[in-house]
Amino acid sequence: MATFHELQTQQRALLDNLDELEEATDALTERLHGFADTDEFTNHQEQLAWLHRQRAGLLVVLSETERSLLTFDVRDDVIILR
Q1: pLDDT, tens digit, for every residue of 48-82?
Q2: In a 10 Å sphere around its CB, with 0-12 CB exposed, 13-18 middle and 19+ buried, how is residue 3 labelled?
Q3: Please, what is the angle between helix 4-32 and helix 39-69, to 10°?
Q4: Beta carbons within 8 Å of 25's beta carbon, 6+ residues apart
Q5: Domain that includes residue 11, residue range
Q6: With contact defined as beta carbons under 8 Å apart, do 2 and 35 qualify?
Q7: pLDDT in tens, 20-59
């Protein structure tokens, strides 16, 4: 079982990755507005769909990490597994 600090580190990394995915999604979405229905447009749509799938998977892992963090009881800087 992961320790509380490992879970916190994982949570921070996942949140950073989520920010990066959202930035990439926003940038790709902006680029899509300028394209007509071409091969490049189709390629960008596929990339956007992939980013959405990655985000969904990351949210699942983040949710499980946060659920695991809830199993710990933190009082006065003492961490106790519930």
Answers
A1: 999 999 999 999 999 999 998 888 877 655 566 66
A2: exposed
A3: 160
A4: 48, 51, 52, 55
A5: 4-81
A6: no
A7: 999 999 998 888 877 767 888 888 889 999 999 999 999 9
Terminal Cα-to-Cα distance of the chain (whole angstroms): 13
Bridge-partner residues for 72, per DSSP? 81
Tokens of 41: 């447009």
CB count within 10 Å of CB 39 equals 8
- How many domains does the chain divide into? 1
| Environment class of 7 (CB within 10 Å of its CB; exposed 0-12, middle 13-18, buried 19+) | buried
Q: What is the pTM of this model?
A: 0.78
Strands 78-81 and 72-75: antiparallel
